[in-house]
Amino acid sequence: MSTPDRQPNPESATTEQSPPTAPGELRQPEHRRGPDGLDDYHKVADTVGGLPNLRARDNIVQTLFVVGGTILFALVGYVLASAGVIEMPPSVPTWVAAAIGGVAGMILCTFLSGFVLMILGVKRTVTKKRR
User: How far, in Å, CA of 25 to CA of 10, rounded?
Assistant: First the structure.
């Protein structure tokens, strides 16, 4: 097989080609996401529910609230048992009342703080939709 002879193009011979230019400054792509990159996940977790909350601030606040409530209820249980307000058999030490109060406080504060975080999540979602 023979290939046709290529004739040089007179127009391209007279035109000089410039060297490629350097690329521009590299930048991070701009997204609508927050600094943690989980904006879509948070939106679903706030509106649908049933998913764990991954916001560090919310988790720290909930932890402090539950620990504080546990200590407070344990102290209340101990004081009530020591003062004789709660009738306990003499063979049961007062720390048992403190433990029962602590467990009750932990359960109550977990549900209460979860309910508050649920309301705040819905409020965040509604506020973001308005923007």
Answer: 38
Q: Which residues contact 1 (CB under 8 A, 6 or more apart)?
A: none
Give domain status of residue 16, yes or no.
Answer: no
- Give domain status of residue 28, yes or no: no
Residue 13 within any structural domain of the chain: no
Report the b/e string of 38-76 with b at 16+ CB within 10 A: eeeebeebbeeeeeebebeebeeebeebbeebbeebbeb
pTM exceeds 0.70, yes or no: no
CA distance 42 to 53: 7
**For residue range 34-55, what is the model confidence (pLDDT) as tens digits?**
566 677 777 777 777 677 878 8
In a domain, 79, yes or no: yes
Structural domains counted in the chain:
1
